[in-house]
Amino acid sequence: MKKSLLSDRGFSKYLSLIDEIINVTKMKYILFIAMDLALYPFLLVLFIGKCIKEKIQIAH
Questions:
Q1: What is the DSSP string of 1-29?
Q2: How many angstroms separate the CA atoms of 46 and 34, rounded?
Q3: CB neighbour class for 45 (10 Å; exposed up to 12, middle 13-18, buried from 19)
């Protein structure tokens, strides 16, 4: 009976909206973590390459 009272007042619409906002927030975090996992190794390789290049230039 409570459920029908809530849906009659339009609360179920707000609950589904809140669930959708939570899902979008979760997807943003997942996307952020995926971008970090893709970007940081690339930057690390660039940094190591730069350091090696500087060491070679100093040696010559």
A1: -HHHHHHHTTHHHHHHHHHHHHHHHHHHH
A2: 19
A3: exposed
- At position 15, the amino acid (one-letter code) is L
Sorted by sequence, the CB contacts under 8 Å of residue 12 that are 6+ apart come out as 6
0.70 surpassed by pTM: no
pLDDT at 1: 45
Helix, strand, coil tally for the chain in percent (to 5): 95, 0, 5
pLDDT digits (tens, 9 = 90+) for 19-58: 888 888 888 888 889 888 889 999 999 999 999 999 988 8
Contact by Cβ (8 Å): 50, 43: no
